[in-house]
Write a structure and sequence with these properties.
Layout (H helix, E strand, L loop, with lengths): L12 H8 L4 H8 L5 E11 L2 H7 L6 E10 L7 E8 H4 L14 H5 L6 E9 L2 E10 L2 E9 L1 H9 L1
Antiparallel strand pairs: 1-2, 2-3, 3-6, 4-5, 5-6
């Protein structure tokens, strides 16, 4: 089977399920990996919202956001997902402030705990692979979670 990296305009059938799944990706990856799951934060920083992200969240473009970039691992040495979470400062001044201090814990652990947050989703091809971007509204706070499925994950699900 061809990799999406050589044909980025066609989503592989095995990956569609993951790109459009609802619920906790953390739980879904943990289940797939037989109980193994690890988050390795790579970078945490402040940056201005992009125009498109601000528009999607219906927030002023000039707002600053806190960004967390991580790699998500299943049962293999190679990362399966490259994750990026974008929290506008307004959200961090409310309930979402807990996300700034979760360290190596997955966002899904808190996001889906006793709640089913509203979610708008878009799927697109980025440089590293097929990506789903989810704009969540959680306890009145809006933020974006972006998950790019890496080649190691695609290979794993094609073999499964």
């Amino acid at each position: 089977m061809q990799s999406t990296h050589s044909q980025p305009n066609i989503i592989p059938e095995e990956l569609k399920t993951w790109l459009y799944a609802s619920g906790s990706l953390t739980q879904q990856l943990t289940d797939l990996a037989g109980g193994k799951f690890q988050v390795i934060p790579e970078k945490e920083h402040y940056q201005r919202l992009t125009f498109l992200d601000a528009k999607w969240m219906k927030m002023p473009y000039q707002h600053t956001s806190w960004v967390r970039e991580s790699l998500l691992f299943g049962c293999e040495a190679e990362p399966w997902v490259k994750a990026k979470s974008i929290f506008p400062i307004l959200s961090l001044q409310s309930h979402a402030r807990i996300y700034k201090h979760i360290g190596k814990k997955p966002i899904g652990l808190f996001l889906f705990q006793r709640t089913n947050p509203a979610c708008e989703r878009r799927v697109l091809w980025l440089e590293d692979g097929w990506t789903r971007q989810s704009c969540y509204t959680w306890h009145g706070c809006k933020f974006i979670v972006q998950e790019t499925f890496l080649p190691a994950f695609e290979h794993y699900i094609q073999q499964a």
